[in-house]
Write a structure and sequence with these properties.
2 domains, 9 strands, two-stranded antiparallel sheet
């Protein structure tokens, strides 16, 4: 639902009016992160404001809120970037190191918005009445895998509930300011006479080739928001996502640039075509997004899947489990959609997404047989056992100076376990 100002109002959509006194959970300031109870639907927000004793600097403070009763906030969509550089910010009296891209955003954009003195260019694209923002690096305790799992599970809800989504492409580069300064003249009949066509096209292409657009998480972050609530920001310039869509669909850039724009992930995002798809189709289309954790290729698409009822039965974000177990859960998902042959084909078609090795791929048929015979939950336990046996066998074989007798005894135990499982499954294999 939208308010009279045209903004997306999640509280109004849920039958609540905007409340300036949103509930604030009391937290222990002696530690940076207090544990979040996943049953209460809590999220952290960073509040930013001007210091009373130093109006030329900003402060940052963490707050905990139930997501459905949180104050209006801005969700940040950005690329982490390399961990080689960066800087420290002060958060509730704690020095927190952040990577360079986020540091640039906080110091050069968010802080300038709060200070806003006459000597600084006031950044555009930031709502003046929003004093809270959500950014994964600061709002999730990245060292707590349990918290990271349940907070990432909520990310679709977090971006849907945000007042706005602030897309940060990074500092100005490759003539990007030229694109942002010229976009409002695209539909002017004199447009081709008013600008250097080659320069504009080159700058636009460079903007759309930025690494940000190829991130695995970009689709969840942008598509869970309303298009009018998404602002693209680069340096101190900003552009509504809808206007970016106009640039993509203009069609007057020449064959080479039109092909490049059509092949860019930007085209899918701005036109929002084909997103009401089941998870298996989303994985086929977008399962090779760039990410630092290979499991995020699956996790980043969960909230967009149209078959949520099926997905939620077998797949949840869990950073404590190995990639091989996530692949097994995908197999369980495929068996709910297809017959045996279809599930085997789908699983083999997905092995490259999670970079599953050939040895594990050869076992897909057996895994699917096990799932069909004894059900999803027991199978998760069985596959943990299989993976444990395989790891132990590799350790024994790789261990230098290990006693052959000891290795032989351990391997015999594993063989007996495997035979026991095989005997249990043998009657089912004849069907």
């Amino acid at each position: 639902m939208r308010s009279k100002t045209g903004k997306h109002d999640t509280r109004a959509a849920q039958g609540r009016g905007p409340s300036p006194a949103a509930p604030l959970i009391q937290r222990n300031r002696h530690v940076l992160y207090n544990a979040l109870d996943p049953r209460k639907g809590l999220i952290r927000l960073v509040r930013i404001g001007r210091r009373e004793n130093d109006p030329e600097s900003a402060f940052f403070s963490l707050e905990e809120h139930p997501i459905d009763k949180a104050p209006e906030y801005m969700a940040i969509s950005y690329m982490w970037g390399p961990n080689t550089e960066g800087g420290d910010i002060e958060l509730d009296g704690h020095a927190v190191h952040v990577r360079q891209n986020l540091y640039n955003l906080i110091q050069n954009v968010l802080t300038r918005r709060v200070i806003g003195n006459s000597e600084m260019v006031r950044p555009r694209g930031l709502p003046n009445d929003v004093h809270h923002f959500w950014v994964d690096t600061l709002c999730i305790n990245q060292n707590d895998l349990g918290e990271r799992s349940h907070q990432v599970q909520m990310m679709g809800h977090i971006y849907r509930s945000a007042r706005s989504v602030f897309v940060w492409l990074g500092p100005e580069d490759d003539d990007s300011d030229y694109v942002f300064d010229m976009h409002d003249r695209v539909r002017n009949p004199k447009f081709t006479q008013d600008y250097e066509h080659g320069r504009f096209a080159k700058a636009l292409l460079a903007l759309f080739r930025r690494e940000y657009w190829y991130r695995a998480w970009i689709r969840q972050e942008i598509l869970n928001a309303q298009m009018d609530d998404v602002t693209i920001n680069c340096g101190d310039r900003s552009l509504k996502l809808g206007l970016l869509a106009d640039l993509c669909s203009d069609g007057s850039w020449g064959a080479e640039l039109n092909r490049a724009l059509g092949a860019s992930p930007v085209a899918d995002l701005v036109h929002r075509d084909g997103w009401a798809e089941k998870l298996d189709r989303l994985l086929q289309l977008y399962g090779e997004g760039r990410c630092s954790d290979i499991r995020d290729r699956v996790y980043s698409l969960l909230s967009l899947a149209s078959d949520q009822e099926v997905v939620s039965e077998v797949l949840r974000v869990d950073y404590t489990q190995p990639t091989s177990l996530l692949f097994w859960q995908l197999i369980c998902y495929f068996t709910k959609l297809y017959d045996w042959a279809g599930a085997i084909a789908a699983a083999r078609g997905m092995k490259h997404i999670l970079e599953i090795d050939d040895q594990m791929t050869r076992s897909i048929r057996n895994w699917i047989m096990i799932q069909k015979c004894i059900g999803t939950v027991p199978c998760i336990d069985w596959i943990r056992e299989f993976l444990g046996l395989a790891r132990e066998a590799r350790r024994i074989q790789a261990r230098k100076g290990a006693s052959p007798k000891t290795a032989s005894q351990k391997l015999q135990v594993q063989v007996r376990k495997a035979k026991t499982i095989s005997c249990y499954l043998q009657p089912h294999m004849k069907r």
